[in-house]
Amino acid sequence: MNNEKKYEAVNEQVEGYTQDGQPGIEKDMDPKPVIIADDYKGSGKLEGKVALITGGDSGIGRSVAVHFAKEGADIALLYLEEEEEDAQYVKMLAEKENVKCLLYSGNINDADFRKETVNDVVSTLGTINILVNNAGVQYPKKDFLDITEDNLRETFETNIISMILLTQEVFPHLEEGDSIINSTSVTAYKGSPIFIDYSSTKGAITSFTRSLAQNLAPQKIRVNAVAPGPIYTPLIPATFDAEHVDQHGEDTPMERRGQPAELGPSYVFLAAQDSSYMTGEVLHVNGGDFTAS
Ligand SMILES: NC(=O)C1=CN([C@@H]2O[C@H](COP(=O)(O)OP(=O)(O)OC[C@H]3O[C@@H](n4cnc5c(N)ncnc54)[C@H](O)[C@@H]3O)[C@@H](O)[C@H]2O)C=CC1
Ligand SMILES: CC(=O)C(C)=O
């Protein structure tokens, strides 16, 4: 079975599965997302590198973590406490690739936690070469007036404010050739009637990526982003009702949701020297929605 057929087969089994609020837990998902293609072969593209991946326990971040491990990077994952088992699973997969994997559970919105995490990664693994800013939350609301101030503040705090603050924490350790990759979203480009606040944070992430890329270009530190379309991750059953979960991705030109396995290679490309002449760019992995780019 070719990879796309395998993804379609998983998609067909989804059938409106939901979870009870964020954070979504990958170990409870049935069917499980596909993290990496069976025929993916690492070729040492990230050997000797150290990557810090936020939200690296599950979904897109898990796929990034496993691809980076396949490419020889030591990795550190930052995630919420409720996701410990998901993170332990990623650690087990990474260690099978003979790389180190450090785990940091806590809230990215806590300044001490950010600082302690970065200091510990650097003292244990020597440095940080790649920062993947991927943690995010979303609270879909049909009615504009239903967006609560608490949800609005949490969405901005988690998705963009802490992204910038964590990047400031990591920046002093980055050197020429190192790279930052941010997870934005197709909703930053298309807008979304149910994600007015969330899509605003994703628009901010795109602008942050472009602006920081210009600022850091003289130091030869590259800053790029990936804009996923609808991807089957714990975030989806944790935040959508069954009908929306079922339909997720049907409105793309490819008429299907994506699997995390279809995202990981883009992050490898942006982290590796293969993309050495790219900065401030966004890769759109969205099932063919090229008008949203
Ligand atoms: N699944 C999708 O269809 C799409 C996802 N994205 C983005 O991809 C990124 C990853 O999400 P997914 O893999 O889909 O879901 P996910 O639920 O697997 O990952 C989100 C991760 O964010 C982390 N997180 C959230 N709040 C946190 C906090 N306060 N402190 C520490 N960690 C926190 C959690 O570890 C969680 O695992 C997010 O930024 C999301 O907005 C973008 C477009 C589409
Ligand atoms: C959550 C999100 O960004 C989409 C495209 O579903």
TrEMBL record:
Domain of life of the source: Bacteria
> Transmembrane residues, as ranges?
none
Known InterPro entries for this protein? NAD(P)-bd_dom_sf, Sc_DH/Rdtase_CS, SDR_fam
Keyword Oxidoreductase on entry? yes
Work out whether the entry's keyword set contains Transferase.
Answer: no
What Pfam families does this protein's entry cite? adh_short_C2
Keywords of this entry: Oxidoreductase
Q: Which spans of this chain does the record mark as coiled coil?
A: none
PANTHER family registered for this protein in UniProt: NADPH-DEPENDENT ALDEHYDE REDUCTASE 1, CHLOROPLASTIC, NADPH-DEPENDENT ALDEHYDE REDUCTASE-LIKE PROTEIN, CHLOROPLASTIC-RELATED
Q: Which family does it belong to?
A: Belongs to the short-chain dehydrogenases/reductases (SDR) family.
- State the protein's name: NAD(P)-dependent dehydrogenase (Short-subunit alcohol dehydrogenase family)
What is the organism of origin for this protein?
A: Salinicoccus halitifaciens
